[in-house]
Amino acid sequence: MTKLTGILGFPLSHSVSPIFQQAAMDYYGLDVRYMVWDTPPESLGDQIRKLRSRDVLGFNVTVPFKQVVIPYLDEVSPEAAVIGAVNTVVIKSDRMIGYNTDQTGFIKALREHGGMDPQGKRALLLGAGGAASAVGYALIQNGASFLVIANRTIERAHRLALELELLSGYSIPAVSLNKEDLSWYLNQEEPIDLLVNCTTLGMSHSSEMHNEPIGRGLIPGSALICDLVYNPLETPLLHSAREVGARTLCGLPMLIYQGASAFRLWTGLEPPVEIMFKAAYSHLE
Q1: Is 125 left (phi over 0), alpha (psi -120 to 50) or beta?
Q2: Positive or negative torsion for Cα 86, 155, 190, 226
Q3: What is the mean pLDDT of the chain?
């Protein structure tokens, strides 16, 4: 009997997860289909109930459900509980278990494709949702020495900063995305080493696909600029960063690595990472 996995989010027209995950399933000859469950927020509960099926191995979770999905689950991993966000669910004996593979995916991408070890680095995170929480957790766990959280809604930035302070042992400022607040932190004597866009600004097939989270004049040319948005491969932010001479890291490596960890959790098999990269790049290019 054909088994199912898939991705749960809204909207999902930009997603390439079905492309590379299906390629991985086909590589092993598995009778598994990777589905797209495009679910409006008001239908989340009904969709979760439908997915409690023996035919469903599990699913990925993306915007806007990484945090709000947790109450629907039976169990979450210790890391996901601390981060407060789930991006992968495994279904075993009708029990839904939530994991967060974003944090390990981000660090692997940062080291292997960004050429940066986070130990001792100073980072500015744009956004305060589930992705920002995972990235902040990952950076703290791997020795980042300073974090700033910037978000359009300052209350959400403060909330995430306070949560991360409990892990870091140092003060984490929370600021808005306005030019004055960001300029103050970007022009310190000790420069920012890493800027990470954890928002969806610049994502294809969205109303904000042409928007940048910060203006070009604020981009620190000496920092590594990372955008978690992976479609398109070069977002407006990364285009501007390249023009001011900054190093850049697109979101696709993180997406593949977190997806590879999900594949391992669902199947127990070693993910064919090269196959997954090839399928994703071919689709996006």
Answers
A1: beta
A2: positive
A3: 95
